[in-house]
Amino acid sequence: MGCFLKTIKEEMAKKLLKIIVFIIIAFLLVLGGFYLFLFDQFEGVGNSTSKDFVIELRDSVFVSARSWGLTGDHQEIIFSSKPISPAHRSYSTDSVYIFYTSEVFYKVDNDSVIVVYAPESSVSEPATKYSNIVIKGLKSGDAVEQYNADYQKYGLKRISVYEK
User: Fold this and answer.
1) CA 5, 6, 9, 15 torsion: positive or negative?
2) Are residues 121 and 83 in the same domain?
3) Would you say 98 and 78 are in contact if contact means Cβ atoms under 8 Å apart?
4) What is the reported pLDDT for 22?
């Protein structure tokens, strides 16, 4: 009988040890995931680039192109009627054009309208559209490749998150 109880105690100890190890591993995975989530959210950590400039028209348009994240794979190009604070990157998504892509092409028509060519699926337009920005969506990967190769022939300029 004593041997039987000893065997049961040993089995319970092994099960308890497995449960404790499982809980520790699960805790470390959650903690690691949370750390990577935070690590990926802050600019300046990991691979990040940023550039800001102004396109001078009758009403100036402020442009910000940036990439960020652990591997630099989050990209956005923003067109705004107001300056975008580089320290806080604060802007209302309801009042700016956001392109979730690494590059867009544009030209200025009659010194008053910016025509932007970007992948159609990357565009987030504000609730109230600007009268001085017109979006031309590129519908296919082939169109994007063609514009990337020939944008200068079309009289366009390129904005890229990877160029300074």
Assistant:
1) negative
2) yes
3) yes
4) 94
